[in-house]
Amino acid sequence: MRQKFVVGNWKMHTTAAVAGRLTQAIADGLGSDTRVRVVLCPPFPYLALVGERLKGSRVALGAQNLYPAADGPFTGEVSPTMLLDLGCQYVILGHSERRHTLGETDAFIDQKVRAALAVGLDVILCVGETRDQRNANQTEAVLDRQLGQGLAGVTAGTLARLSIAYEPVWAIGNLSHHATPQQAQDAHAGIRRRFGLLFGEPAAQALVISYGGSVEPEDAAALLSRPGVDGALVGGASLHADPFLAIVRAASGGPQTGVKAAG
Ligand SMILES: O=C[C@H](O)COP(=O)(O)O
Q1: Most buried of 90, 157, 177, 211, CB within 10 angstroms?
Q2: How far is the centre of ligand 1, averaged over its atoms, from the C-alpha of 72 (Å)?
Q3: CATH number of the domain within which 167 lies
């Protein structure tokens, strides 16, 4: 049985003071319950601070990006080993904001996935179609391409350190147009099928596939109770402790032992 997975992606938000308070509130609010795997991904400058606050908690630290080289003349970039040094266990790669706003290609994302897995980081690989691609019935082709290239460097030995986040681009930061639980379930089933073709059925059944795109406490239970929807990659709602904790509770299927009520 796959463990539910909830990741907070703070994107380019917070300040040091806010990051510290938010981390503390989330770590305290989660208590000792381990039914849901929880990860916080702050901006690079706050990784050390957040990592420090998470010590002794059951929340893992993740980064939002990396550069696929061990070191070198790459001004402004951050290497996989630097993330490890800072205590990161996870890294988000292939996020649509990097694909579409910053122009990252499938080939570059493939390099990043390889670099992350090579040093022992766990990868959360984001895939998803734009609204135009969905309207043109290209969703499957887009996911095929993104998965085919994004997973090219994954091997039997590194498979267990990979999860997928399905994020339809049209649903991100868009409360009036988020995907329905059925749309998420269908896309996840397609991703699992493709994964099975690449790596075999046991690997496909073990694969954790999260949904991202305006996940809010109100719809989290309906979404996360769907077969094959194993978690949530949460943006906006992870910037406040109460809604984020509520989403974790929804993922656990109900009140969690040792989890204080959000408030
Ligand atoms: O990484 C998170 C996703 O892009 C979702 O962001 P959002 O919850 O603000 O729509």
Answers
A1: 211
A2: 32
A3: 3.20.20.70
